């Protein structure tokens, strides 16, 4: 697995997210209140809302458009809602955020 | 023949190596020990008690001259090693040299010093060794001295507590949002801060040091936010970095620390390293437990035995007398992990256990750490805790007992058991009230005062009611804020004010939040309540705001934004219109529309363009129209007496004055105003949150109108003769609404709850009105600023752009 350094952990606010643009669309990189990072497609399964702009609480994000709650780790809708978002391997090393390069460049389906 | 071992650095790790080595083979080694400090080995983690005066230096020495002499160790203290000659296996020092068969590097770490102006001034110290400690003790000897400690981690807080005990006035500056963020979650960090503040230590979180000030010696510290603190002593305790220079000069593999194998051997098979200077498997070590494990492995490797270092979980305790704090393992939230949280606000206790599968993997305890080692044992051993899960948080004493049914527990309480701590009401008193006919929480509050103060015992009182009345007791259907709490918005607002809760962790701890960091429902509400009630103390939290308020623009269904410049009272001019047209061209704005509030809306702006279009509009004198905010939106006006043949007053002028006074204020929901110049009401003031209709004899002020989901006509609040009175009443009304309404209630909904009569009573009392206006203006002194101007900086522009762009990376 090749890890791609996409930026510093501190580039993302705690309980916030930033975007990584790829040929297959935007990937939202989240940082939780306790400094974990998660990468998911930036599209809510409900109506395509930008998850990166949602409020991050615990290890979930609430979509800013209509309030669907998505788990950051599994990409699955929480509660009574149905739906799933693609997730990507992400980790932190020495204060830098690393994403799986091949998956990002290939897209999720490959 | 004895083999020659040279050790560089007499610290806790190398001291432990020597003990193991001599125990295994007392005569196998000819040992030479170099140390840059002119003394032998003392227990560095006990420096804090030395600083606070609870211990003396002699008490923390672990290896004295006698010990070295007894074991025939050649001590070369005060002599620093300058070079390792690996080819000839010789260590060269400032005063001579020593040959070795095996070399052990134990140079430890050096304090990290902030690269700010003034760091070299006399009076600026680190907190690392006995010399630092002595410098601090000397500084504290002067009466009335002030100290600033930079760094609110383990070491910094111990330094702060020690200096305080020695009589100094102490302030801790911490870069992060809460103290000890590596060991504690925000809730425990909040309790710790509260405890330290109760001891008279000032704590300034989110404080970034800009410079250390002083001429001859240190005089103060200046922060980036321009706060200044006087200081006779500045202690930097922001971290350590491994001391690796001697190793890298010798060509050994060094990353952040000296790289060692599982056997603690460096890239040279004859050179080992141990302690804070090493890096093992990408990890550095600062706590003592893993260093002792390393020492054991070093001794074994030197003796030719097989051993491998495996880092284990470590637990942290803060060595500040009277502060009980414990953290161990991994307590971050993650998928598949569950939290068990226990809070006892009255006793200042917080416990959080993190469970993954059937195992306990992390624990944070504050206020009561008696079970810390038991939890730590469960973490280290990976014990299956599924059988005791329900009562795990109560510790070992509760294991093996019967399952805890809260109702049964309450039923079992004796009559003299205290239920309401605030009012000293015991269970028996409540039962008597029930016998006397009380059937609801309200009855109990009215007759006994139980749960009528802080409200945290409400659940208990309800359980007593349920026990006594059985099915006859119906729990009131008051809507809690969200799943994180049982409190209603009204209770929450009341408690935030009554108990002076000024931060989100304070609210969550003191009011027993059930989640670690709230949710998308409670956080925006809390953020508003806190900033409305404590404008000077609370720090607005962007991450607890909805997207529109965080990005200062309205998000559209395709993820683009709309931008609306403010036009005071709906007035504009050719220069502004040209700037808007230019911006629409430059950023290829797909749609330009006039809004219902007499403003111009630029729709379809991309997020990364926002700071740039704002900067362009700013340059033309336009500021944010806050068309996205739960705050003042617009003041719609007609042209009034300036142009209109029917106009009775200057409605445009009044509208502009009101907008200039009210803009930028945050309110529970959006607030729209209008001012019409005559009863023909062209500005449609009768369906606004506040609508003023000018008449010949003055100003008729109506409130509580709406033309959205509900259609409501305003109700008359008052009629005033002068414009100034109309402005005063409007401002006071907005502030009363800010202070009392539930988040996301428009004024008409709030008025339906509290009644217009009550509002009128408040506003027409001159003293109350003046106080409301003063509080509004105070809040505006903090919050009335143009977010567009604030985002015209390169840093803010970068934050709105994607973190990385990989669209040009080709697929393989």
Measure the end-to-end span of chain A: 15 Å
**Oligomeric state of the chains in view:** heterodimer
Q: Determine the CATH superfamily of the largest domain in chain B.
A: FAD/NAD(P)-binding domain
> In one word, what is the shape of chain A?
globular
* CATH H-level superfamily of chain A: Rieske [2Fe-2S] iron-sulphur domain
Number of helices of chain A: 1
For the largest beta-sheet of chain A, the strand count, sense and barrel status come to:
4 strands, antiparallel
Approximate strand percentage of chain B: 15-25%
In terms of DSSP E residues, the strand content of chain A is 35-45%
CATH class of chain A: Mainly Beta
Count the E strands of chain A: 10
List the strand order in the largest sheet of chain B.
5-2-1-9-21
Secondary structure: number of strands of chain B:
41
Runs of chain B in which pLDDT lies below 50 for 5 or more consecutive residues are 400-404
Computed Rg of chain B:
34 Å
> Would you state the CATH class of the largest domain in chain B?
Alpha Beta
CATH architecture of chain A: 3-layer Sandwich
Q: What is CATH's topology name of the largest domain in chain B?
A: FAD/NAD(P)-binding domain
Please name the two chains that share the biggest interface, counting residues whose Cβ lies under 8 Å from a Cβ on the partner chain: A-B, 51 and 43 residues
Question: What does this protein look like?
Answer:
The complex is a heterodimer of chains A (110) and B (812). With 110 residues, chain A is mainly beta. Chain A has one domain (3-106): Rieske Iron-sulfur Protein. Chain A contains 1 helix and 10 strands. In chain A, the strands form 3 sheets. Chain A has a 4-stranded antiparallel β-sheet. In chain A, strands 1-10-9 form a 3-stranded antiparallel β-sheet. Chain B has a 5-stranded parallel β-sheet with strand order 5-2-1-9-21, with no helix packed on it. In chain B, strands 11-18-12-13-14 form a 5-stranded parallel β-sheet. A 5-stranded antiparallel β-sheet of chain B has the order 23-24-27-26-25. The two termini of chain B are 62 Å apart. Chain B has 7 domains: 3-109 and 242-302, 3-Layer(bba) Sandwich (FAD/NAD(P)-binding domain); 124-238, FAD/NAD(P)-binding domain, CATH 3.50.50; 324-404, FAD/NAD-linked reductase, C-terminal dimerisation domain (Enolase-like, domain 1, 2-Layer Sandwich); 407-472, BFD-like [2Fe-2S]-binding domain (Arc Repressor Mutant, subunit A, Orthogonal Bundle), CATH 1.10.10.1100; 489-534, no CATH class; 548-628, Sulfite Reductase Hemoprotein,Domain 2 (Sulfite Reductase Hemoprotein, domain 2), CATH 3.90.480; 632-783, Sulfite Reductase Hemoprotein, domain 1, CATH 3.30.413. Mean pLDDT of chain B is 88; it is low at 400-404. Chain B has 28 helices and 41 strands. In chain B, β1 (3-8), α1 (12-24) and β2 form a beta-alpha-beta unit. Chain B is of the alpha/beta class and 812 residues long. In chain B, 33% of the residues lie in helices and 22% in strands. Classes of the chains: A mainly beta (110), B alpha/beta (812). At the A-B interface, β1, β2, β5 and α1 of A face α18 and β41 of B. β2 (16-22) of chain A pairs parallel with β41 of chain B, so a sheet runs across the interface.
């Amino acid at each position: 697995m090749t890890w791609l350094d996409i930026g510093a952990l501190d580039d993302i606010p705690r309980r916030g997210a930033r975007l990584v643009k790829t040929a297959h669309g935007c990937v939202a990189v989240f940082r939780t209140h306790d400094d974990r990072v998660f990468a998911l497609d930036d599209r809510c399964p409900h109506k395509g809302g930008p998850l990166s702009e949602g409020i991050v609480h615990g290890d979930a994000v609430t979509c800013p458009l209509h309030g669907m709650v998505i788990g950051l780790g599994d990409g699955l809708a929480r509660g009574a809602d149905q739906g799933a978002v693609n997730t990507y391997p992400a980790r932190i090393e020495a204060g830098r955020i690393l994403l799986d390069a091949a998956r990002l460049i290939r897209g999720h389906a490959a | 023949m004895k083999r020659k071992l040279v050790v560089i650095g007499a610290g806790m790790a190398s001291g432990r190596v020597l003990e193991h080595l001599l125990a295994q083979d007392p005569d196998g080694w000819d040992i030479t020990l170099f140390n840059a400090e002119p003394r032998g080995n003392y227990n560095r983690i006990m420096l804090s008690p030395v600083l606070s005066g609870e211990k003396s230096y002699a008490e923390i020495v672990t290896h004295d001259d006698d010990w070295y002499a007894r074991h025939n160790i050649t001590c070369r203290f005060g002599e620093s090693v300058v070079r390792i000659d690996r080819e000839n296996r010789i260590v060269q020092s400032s005063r001579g040299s020593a040959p070795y068969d095996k070399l052990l590097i134990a140079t430890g770490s050096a304090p990290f010093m902030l690269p700010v102006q003034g760091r070299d001034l006399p009076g600026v110290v680190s907190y690392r060794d006995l010399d630092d400690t002595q410098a601090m003790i000397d500084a504290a000897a002067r009466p009335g001295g002030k100290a600033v400690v930079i760094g609110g981690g383990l070491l910094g807080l111990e330094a702060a507590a020690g200096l305080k005990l020695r009589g100094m006035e102490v302030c801790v500056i911490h870069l992060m949002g809460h103290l000890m963020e590596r060991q504690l979650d925000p809730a425990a960090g909040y309790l710790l801060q509260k405890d330290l503040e109760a001891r008279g230590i000032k704590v300034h979180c989110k404080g970034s040091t800009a410079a250390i000030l002083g001429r001859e010696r240190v005089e103060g510290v200046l922060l980036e936010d321009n706060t200044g603190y006087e200081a006779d002593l500045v202690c930097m305790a922001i971290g350590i970095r491994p001391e690796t220079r001697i190793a890298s000069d010798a060509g050994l593999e060094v990353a952040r620390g000296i790289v060692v194998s599982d056997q603690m051997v460096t890239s040279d098979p004859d050179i080992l390293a141990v302690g804070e200077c090493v890096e093992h498997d990408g990890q550095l070590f600062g706590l003592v437990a893993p260093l002792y494990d390393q020492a054991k492995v070093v001794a074994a490797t030197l003796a030719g035995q097989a051993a491998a270092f495996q880092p284990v979980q470590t637990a942290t305790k803060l060595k500040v007398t009277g502060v009980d704090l414990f953290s161990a393992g991994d307590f971050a939230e993650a998928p598949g992990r569950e939290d068990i949280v226990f809070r006892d606000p009255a006793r200042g206790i917080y416990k959080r256990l993190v469970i993954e599968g059937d195992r306990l993997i992390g624990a944070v305890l504050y206020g009561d750490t008696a079970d810390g080692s038991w939890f730590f044992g469960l973490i280290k051993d990976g014990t299956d805790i599924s059988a005791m899960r329900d009562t795990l948080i109560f510790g070992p004493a509760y294991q093996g007992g019967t399952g805890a049914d809260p109702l049964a527990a309450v039923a079992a309480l004796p009559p003299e058991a205290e239920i309401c701590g605030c009012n000293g009401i015991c269970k028996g008193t409540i039962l008597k009230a029930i016998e006397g006919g009380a059937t609801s929480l309200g009855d109990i509050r009215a007759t006994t005062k139980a749960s009528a103060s802080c409200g945290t015992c409400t659940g208990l009182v309800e359980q007593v009611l349920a026990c006594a009345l059985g099915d006859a007791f119906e729990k009131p259907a008051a809507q809690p804020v969200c799943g994180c709490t049982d409190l209603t918005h009204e209770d929450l607002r009341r408690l935030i004010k009554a108990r002076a809760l000024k931060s989100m962790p304070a609210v969550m701890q003191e009011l027993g939040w059930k989640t670690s960091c709230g949710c998308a429902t409670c956080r925006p509400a809390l953020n508003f309540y806190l900033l409305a009630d404590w404008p000077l103390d609370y720090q607005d939290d962007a991450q607890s705001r909805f997207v529109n308020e965080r990005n200062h623009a309205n998000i559209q269904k395709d993820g683009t934004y709309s931008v609306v410049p403010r036009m005071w009272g709906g007035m504009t001019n050719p220069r502004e219109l040209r700037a808007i047209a230019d911006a629409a061209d430059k950023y290829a704005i797909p749609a330009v529309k006039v809004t219902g509030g007499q403003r111009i809306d630029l729709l379809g702006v991309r997020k990364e363009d926002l700071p740039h279009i704002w900067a362009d509009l700013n340059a033309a004198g336009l500021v944010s129209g806050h068309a996205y905010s739960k705050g003042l939106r617009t003041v719609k006006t007609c042209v009034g007496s300036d142009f209109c043949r029917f106009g009775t007053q200057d409605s445009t002028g009044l509208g502009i004055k009101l907008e200039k006074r009210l803009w930028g204020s945050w309110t529970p929901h959006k607030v729209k105003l209008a001012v019409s110049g005559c009863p023909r009401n062209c500005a449609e003031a009768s369906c606004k949150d506040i609508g003023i209709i000018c008449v010949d004899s003055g100003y008729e002020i109506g409130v509580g109108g709406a033309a959205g989901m509900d259609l409501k006509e305003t109700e008359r609040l008052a009629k005033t003769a002068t414009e100034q009175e109309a402005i005063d009443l409007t401002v006071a009304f907005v502030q009363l609404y800010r202070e009392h309404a539930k988040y996301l209630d428009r004024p008409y909904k709030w008025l339906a709850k509290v009644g217009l009569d009550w509002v009128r009573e408040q506003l027409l009392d001159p003293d109350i009105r003046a106080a409301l206006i003063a509080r509004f203006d105070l809040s505006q002194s903090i919050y009335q600023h143009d977010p567009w101007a604030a985002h015209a900086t390169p840093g803010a522009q970068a934050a709105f752009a994607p973190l990385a762009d990989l669209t040009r990376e080709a697929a393989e």
